[in-house]
Amino acid sequence: MLNPLVLMLFTLLSVATSVAQGGESKGPPPYLLAPGDVLEISVWQEENLQRQSLVAPDGMISFPLAGTFKAAGRTVAQVQEELKKRLSPYLADPVVTVALLNNSGNVVFVIGKVNKPGEFPVQRRIDVLQALSMAGGFTPFADKDDIIVLRRSEDGKQQVFKFDYSDVSSGESLEQNIVLLPGDTVVVP
User: CA of 49: how far to CAs of 86, 94, 102, 120, 181, in Å?
Assistant: First the structure.
């Protein structure tokens, strides 16, 4: 058995080597807006252009002078840039601020033979294992190796991703442990 100090030094050396070789881990993916999210939008020195905007079920938002445009699937920064571009014909160099007030659109569903099935609002991106944990784990009769993730694409087509809990929990086929998107449904038969 390795001395804990030796193990810690080995771990630090491995991380330092990885960073030196350009193997830095990237941060989490940026949050993409989803229907149900609420934005606070303001334009500097324009009192009439300050309001909250709900991302509609079709993914669109409306704002005075800017009209209606797609916000779902974009980052807050991208929506801010789009608003600035759309307001430029009406205002000289508009300073637009967009903030996410509520990410109610970021929900995933876990159904089937889990202890607490239901809708789970999440504050960050989670993967399948994390969603199963939020649902309280499996009931005794769950078929852990035939789990599927259902995802509806923007064009309405259904995608199905297979998830074999035994493989993933033993460190195999880790690519199955996908990051869930808002609206995904994990089905445990």
Answer: 13, 11, 20, 34, 31
Longest dimension (CA), the chain: 71
- The residue among 132, 114, 116, 120 whose CA lies nearest residue 177 is 132
37-103 is classed CATH 3.30.2020.30: no
Cα distance between residue 171 and residue 148, in whole Å: 18
Whether this prediction's pTM lies above 0.85 is answered by no
Q: Are 17 and 10 in contact, with CB atoms under 8 Å apart?
A: no
Dist. CA 115–CA 120, nearest whole Å: 13
Q: What is the pLDDT of residues 6-17, one digit of tens each?
A: 444 444 444 444
Torsion of CA 19, 179, 39, 152, to 10 degrees: 150
In CATH terms, 107-188 corresponds, of 2.70.98.70, 3.30.365.10, 3.10.560.10, 3.40.30.10, to: 3.10.560.10
Domain ranges of the chain: 37-103, 107-188
Each residue's pLDDT tens digit, 31-42: 888 888 999 999
